[in-house]
Fold:
Amino acid sequence: MGGLALFGGVDAGGTTFKCGLASAGGDLVARRRIPTTDPRETISNCVAFFLEAAHEHDAEIAALGIAAFGPIDVDAASPAYGTILDTPKRGWSGANLFDLFSRALGVRVTVDTDVNGALLAEMKWGAARDASSAAYVTIGTGIGAGIFAGGGFMGKPRHPEFGHICVQRHAADASFQGVCPKHGDCLEGLASASALAARFGEPAALPADHQAWGIEAWYIAQACLNLNLSFRPDRIILGGGLMLAEHLLPRVQERYAQLVAGYLGESTSDIERLICRPGLGDDAGLLGGVALARG
Structure:
Protein backbone atom coordinates (compact mmCIF):
# COMPACT_ATOMS: atom_id res chain seq x y z
CA MET A 1 0.00 0.00 0.00
CA GLY A 2 1.07 3.56 -0.64
CA GLY A 3 1.05 6.58 1.62
CA LEU A 4 -2.28 8.07 0.54
CA ALA A 5 -4.68 8.12 3.52
CA LEU A 6 -8.35 7.68 2.73
CA PHE A 7 -11.34 7.46 5.06
CA GLY A 8 -13.95 4.74 4.78
CA GLY A 9 -17.64 5.40 5.19
CA VAL A 10 -20.59 3.03 5.48
CA ASP A 11 -24.24 4.04 5.30
CA ALA A 12 -25.66 0.86 6.81
CA GLY A 13 -29.30 0.61 5.78
CA GLY A 14 -31.91 -2.08 6.09
CA THR A 15 -32.03 -2.52 2.32
CA THR A 16 -28.55 -1.45 1.17
CA PHE A 17 -25.12 -0.83 2.65
CA LYS A 18 -23.49 2.08 0.81
CA CYS A 19 -19.73 1.98 1.12
CA GLY A 20 -17.19 4.57 0.03
CA LEU A 21 -13.60 5.77 0.32
CA ALA A 22 -13.01 9.52 0.47
CA SER A 23 -10.40 12.13 1.12
CA ALA A 24 -10.38 14.05 4.40
CA GLY A 25 -12.32 16.76 2.57
CA GLY A 26 -15.17 14.41 1.74
CA ASP A 27 -14.36 13.80 -1.93
CA LEU A 28 -15.42 10.24 -2.78
CA VAL A 29 -12.91 8.32 -4.88
CA ALA A 30 -14.66 4.92 -4.79
CA ARG A 31 -18.13 3.72 -3.85
CA ARG A 32 -20.33 0.64 -4.00
CA ARG A 33 -23.90 -0.31 -3.06
CA ILE A 34 -24.17 -3.72 -1.39
CA PRO A 35 -27.52 -5.43 -0.77
CA THR A 36 -28.35 -6.00 2.89
CA THR A 37 -28.70 -9.76 3.31
CA ASP A 38 -27.44 -11.47 6.47
CA PRO A 39 -24.69 -9.85 8.58
CA ARG A 40 -21.90 -12.25 7.61
CA GLU A 41 -22.45 -11.96 3.84
CA THR A 42 -23.16 -8.24 3.86
CA ILE A 43 -20.14 -7.26 5.91
CA SER A 44 -17.87 -9.66 4.04
CA ASN A 45 -18.86 -7.94 0.79
CA CYS A 46 -18.26 -4.51 2.34
CA VAL A 47 -14.82 -5.51 3.58
CA ALA A 48 -13.93 -6.89 0.14
CA PHE A 49 -14.89 -3.56 -1.42
CA PHE A 50 -12.71 -1.56 0.98
CA LEU A 51 -9.68 -3.78 0.46
CA GLU A 52 -10.09 -3.72 -3.32
CA ALA A 53 -10.65 0.05 -3.46
CA ALA A 54 -7.68 0.79 -1.20
CA HIS A 55 -5.45 -1.41 -3.36
CA GLU A 56 -6.73 0.20 -6.56
CA HIS A 57 -5.92 3.69 -5.25
CA ASP A 58 -2.63 2.61 -3.66
CA ALA A 59 -3.97 3.94 -0.35
CA GLU A 60 -4.22 3.15 3.33
CA ILE A 61 -7.60 3.17 5.06
CA ALA A 62 -6.98 5.63 7.88
CA ALA A 63 -10.24 4.92 9.72
CA LEU A 64 -13.80 3.76 9.11
CA GLY A 65 -17.09 5.36 10.12
CA ILE A 66 -20.45 3.59 10.13
CA ALA A 67 -23.76 5.45 10.10
CA ALA A 68 -26.18 2.64 10.85
CA PHE A 69 -29.84 1.81 11.11
CA GLY A 70 -31.02 1.03 14.59
CA PRO A 71 -31.76 0.77 17.31
CA ILE A 72 -28.04 0.46 17.96
CA ASP A 73 -25.70 0.83 20.94
CA VAL A 74 -23.70 4.02 20.29
CA ASP A 75 -22.11 4.28 23.73
CA ALA A 76 -18.38 3.98 23.03
CA ALA A 77 -17.81 2.89 26.64
CA SER A 78 -20.27 0.00 26.37
CA PRO A 79 -19.06 -3.57 25.79
CA ALA A 80 -21.88 -3.80 23.23
CA TYR A 81 -20.79 -0.69 21.31
CA GLY A 82 -21.84 -0.95 17.69
CA THR A 83 -24.38 -3.72 18.30
CA ILE A 84 -27.72 -3.67 16.50
CA LEU A 85 -30.37 -4.12 19.19
CA ASP A 86 -33.94 -5.40 18.83
CA THR A 87 -34.67 -4.77 15.15
CA PRO A 88 -37.36 -6.20 12.87
CA LYS A 89 -34.63 -6.69 10.24
CA ARG A 90 -34.34 -10.47 10.26
CA GLY A 91 -31.00 -11.82 11.42
CA TRP A 92 -29.54 -8.47 12.46
CA SER A 93 -30.48 -8.26 16.14
CA GLY A 94 -27.24 -8.73 18.06
CA ALA A 95 -24.95 -8.09 15.08
CA ASN A 96 -21.94 -6.09 16.29
CA LEU A 97 -20.83 -3.84 13.44
CA PHE A 98 -17.92 -2.42 15.42
CA ASP A 99 -16.38 -5.82 16.10
CA LEU A 100 -17.01 -7.26 12.65
CA PHE A 101 -15.49 -4.34 10.73
CA SER A 102 -12.62 -3.55 13.11
CA ARG A 103 -11.44 -7.18 13.16
CA ALA A 104 -11.67 -7.52 9.38
CA LEU A 105 -9.97 -4.23 8.48
CA GLY A 106 -7.72 -3.59 11.49
CA VAL A 107 -8.49 0.15 11.59
CA ARG A 108 -10.17 2.52 14.02
CA VAL A 109 -13.96 2.20 13.67
CA THR A 110 -16.57 4.71 14.84
CA VAL A 111 -20.27 3.84 14.91
CA ASP A 112 -23.28 6.14 15.21
CA THR A 113 -26.86 6.30 14.01
CA ASP A 114 -27.66 6.93 10.37
CA VAL A 115 -29.28 10.28 11.17
CA ASN A 116 -26.40 11.48 13.34
CA GLY A 117 -23.97 10.54 10.60
CA ALA A 118 -25.98 12.31 7.92
CA LEU A 119 -26.31 15.39 10.13
CA LEU A 120 -22.57 15.48 10.83
CA ALA A 121 -21.86 15.38 7.08
CA GLU A 122 -24.43 18.11 6.40
CA MET A 123 -22.78 20.30 9.05
CA LYS A 124 -19.34 19.75 7.53
CA TRP A 125 -20.12 19.90 3.82
CA GLY A 126 -23.84 20.38 3.21
CA ALA A 127 -26.94 22.40 4.01
CA ALA A 128 -25.92 23.11 7.63
CA ARG A 129 -22.24 23.94 7.13
CA ASP A 130 -22.85 27.51 8.41
CA ALA A 131 -25.03 26.38 11.33
CA SER A 132 -24.11 25.91 14.98
CA SER A 133 -27.19 23.77 15.65
CA ALA A 134 -29.26 21.57 13.36
CA ALA A 135 -31.59 18.61 13.13
CA TYR A 136 -31.69 15.94 10.45
CA VAL A 137 -34.95 14.04 10.03
CA THR A 138 -35.09 10.99 7.79
CA ILE A 139 -38.53 10.06 6.47
CA GLY A 140 -38.52 6.69 4.79
CA THR A 141 -39.51 3.18 5.80
CA GLY A 142 -39.17 4.53 9.34
CA ILE A 143 -38.63 7.98 10.80
CA GLY A 144 -35.72 9.14 12.92
CA ALA A 145 -33.90 12.32 13.83
CA GLY A 146 -30.47 13.46 14.90
CA ILE A 147 -30.09 16.75 16.77
CA PHE A 148 -26.85 18.71 17.19
CA ALA A 149 -26.82 21.58 19.69
CA GLY A 150 -24.47 23.01 22.30
CA GLY A 151 -21.44 21.48 20.63
CA GLY A 152 -22.63 17.88 20.49
CA PHE A 153 -25.33 15.40 19.58
CA MET A 154 -28.30 15.33 21.90
CA GLY A 155 -29.15 12.12 23.72
CA LYS A 156 -25.65 10.68 23.94
CA PRO A 157 -24.63 8.07 24.98
CA ARG A 158 -28.05 6.95 23.77
CA HIS A 159 -29.92 8.44 20.81
CA PRO A 160 -33.31 10.10 20.35
CA GLU A 161 -36.32 8.08 19.20
CA PHE A 162 -37.99 11.03 17.53
CA GLY A 163 -40.02 8.86 15.19
CA HIS A 164 -42.15 7.78 18.13
CA ILE A 165 -43.38 11.19 19.30
CA CYS A 166 -47.13 11.81 19.44
CA VAL A 167 -48.74 13.98 16.77
CA GLN A 168 -52.23 15.32 16.27
CA ARG A 169 -54.34 13.39 13.79
CA HIS A 170 -55.26 14.90 10.44
CA ALA A 171 -59.03 15.35 10.18
CA ALA A 172 -59.17 13.08 7.13
CA ASP A 173 -57.06 10.36 8.77
CA ALA A 174 -59.13 9.46 11.81
CA SER A 175 -59.66 5.75 11.19
CA PHE A 176 -56.15 4.58 10.27
CA GLN A 177 -54.62 2.67 13.19
CA GLY A 178 -50.98 3.32 12.24
CA VAL A 179 -48.22 0.85 11.47
CA CYS A 180 -45.90 1.18 14.45
CA PRO A 181 -45.91 -2.21 16.22
CA LYS A 182 -45.31 -0.51 19.58
CA HIS A 183 -47.35 2.70 19.45
CA GLY A 184 -49.65 2.44 16.45
CA ASP A 185 -50.23 6.07 15.57
CA CYS A 186 -46.98 7.78 16.57
CA LEU A 187 -45.21 9.96 13.97
CA GLU A 188 -43.58 6.93 12.34
CA GLY A 189 -46.82 4.98 12.54
CA LEU A 190 -48.67 7.67 10.61
CA ALA A 191 -46.11 9.42 8.39
CA SER A 192 -43.48 6.87 7.35
CA ALA A 193 -43.40 5.47 3.83
CA SER A 194 -44.72 2.24 5.31
CA ALA A 195 -47.69 4.10 6.76
CA LEU A 196 -48.48 5.83 3.47
CA ALA A 197 -48.22 2.57 1.57
CA ALA A 198 -50.53 0.81 4.05
CA ARG A 199 -53.43 3.13 3.28
CA PHE A 200 -52.72 4.71 -0.11
CA GLY A 201 -50.41 2.33 -1.98
CA GLU A 202 -46.81 2.78 -3.09
CA PRO A 203 -45.88 6.46 -2.41
CA ALA A 204 -43.79 6.79 -5.58
CA ALA A 205 -46.90 6.01 -7.65
CA LEU A 206 -49.10 8.66 -6.01
CA PRO A 207 -49.77 11.81 -8.10
CA ALA A 208 -48.77 15.15 -6.61
CA ASP A 209 -52.41 16.14 -6.05
CA HIS A 210 -53.29 12.98 -4.09
CA GLN A 211 -54.75 13.63 -0.63
CA ALA A 212 -51.98 11.51 0.89
CA TRP A 213 -49.47 14.32 0.45
CA GLY A 214 -51.58 16.85 2.31
CA ILE A 215 -51.90 14.39 5.19
CA GLU A 216 -48.16 13.66 5.10
CA ALA A 217 -47.28 17.36 5.13
CA TRP A 218 -49.51 17.86 8.18
CA TYR A 219 -47.58 15.30 10.19
CA ILE A 220 -44.10 16.33 9.04
CA ALA A 221 -44.88 20.00 9.69
CA GLN A 222 -45.86 19.08 13.25
CA ALA A 223 -42.53 17.30 13.64
CA CYS A 224 -40.70 20.41 12.42
CA LEU A 225 -42.71 22.63 14.74
CA ASN A 226 -41.94 20.40 17.73
CA LEU A 227 -38.24 20.44 16.88
CA ASN A 228 -38.13 24.19 16.47
CA LEU A 229 -40.12 25.04 19.57
CA SER A 230 -38.05 22.60 21.65
CA PHE A 231 -34.50 23.22 20.38
CA ARG A 232 -34.54 26.27 18.04
CA PRO A 233 -32.03 24.75 15.57
CA ASP A 234 -30.58 26.82 12.74
CA ARG A 235 -31.63 24.14 10.23
CA ILE A 236 -34.12 21.31 10.07
CA ILE A 237 -33.00 19.07 7.21
CA LEU A 238 -35.60 16.67 5.81
CA GLY A 239 -34.12 13.61 4.11
CA GLY A 240 -35.12 10.06 3.33
CA GLY A 241 -37.02 8.42 0.49
CA LEU A 242 -40.33 10.26 0.87
CA MET A 243 -38.64 13.65 0.58
CA LEU A 244 -37.58 12.74 -2.96
CA ALA A 245 -41.10 13.86 -3.92
CA GLU A 246 -40.23 17.40 -5.04
CA HIS A 247 -43.66 18.80 -4.17
CA LEU A 248 -43.60 17.65 -0.54
CA LEU A 249 -41.12 20.13 0.94
CA PRO A 250 -43.11 23.25 -0.10
CA ARG A 251 -46.24 21.65 1.37
CA VAL A 252 -44.44 21.04 4.65
CA GLN A 253 -43.11 24.61 4.77
CA GLU A 254 -46.57 26.02 4.06
CA ARG A 255 -48.26 23.85 6.68
CA TYR A 256 -45.54 24.69 9.21
CA ALA A 257 -46.22 28.40 8.64
CA GLN A 258 -49.89 27.81 9.38
CA LEU A 259 -49.12 25.84 12.54
CA VAL A 260 -46.56 28.25 14.00
CA ALA A 261 -49.02 31.11 13.27
CA GLY A 262 -46.39 33.85 13.38
CA TYR A 263 -45.43 33.05 16.96
CA LEU A 264 -41.68 33.06 16.24
CA GLY A 265 -41.77 36.03 13.88
CA GLU A 266 -40.46 34.04 10.93
CA SER A 267 -40.85 35.29 7.37
CA THR A 268 -41.50 32.96 4.45
CA SER A 269 -37.82 33.10 3.53
CA ASP A 270 -36.87 32.32 7.15
CA ILE A 271 -39.01 29.18 7.03
CA GLU A 272 -37.59 28.13 3.67
CA ARG A 273 -34.09 28.53 5.07
CA LEU A 274 -34.96 26.69 8.28
CA ILE A 275 -36.72 23.67 6.75
CA CYS A 276 -34.67 22.43 3.84
CA ARG A 277 -33.43 19.47 1.81
CA PRO A 278 -30.07 17.78 2.39
CA GLY A 279 -27.31 19.64 0.62
CA LEU A 280 -25.55 16.33 0.00
CA GLY A 281 -28.62 14.60 -1.41
CA ASP A 282 -28.52 10.81 -1.29
CA ASP A 283 -24.85 10.87 -0.23
CA ALA A 284 -25.55 12.39 3.20
CA GLY A 285 -25.46 9.03 5.02
CA LEU A 286 -22.38 7.74 3.20
CA LEU A 287 -20.47 10.96 3.78
CA GLY A 288 -21.74 10.79 7.34
CA GLY A 289 -19.71 7.62 7.70
CA VAL A 290 -16.68 9.42 6.28
CA ALA A 291 -17.22 12.33 8.69
CA LEU A 292 -17.42 9.91 11.63
CA ALA A 293 -14.17 8.29 10.49
CA ARG A 294 -12.46 11.67 10.36
CA GLY A 295 -13.49 12.35 13.97
Observations:
- The chain has nine helices and ten strands.
- Strands lie at 4-12, 16-22, 28-35, 59-68, 108-113, 134-139, 143-149, 152-153, 235-239, 275-276.
- The mean pLDDT is 96.
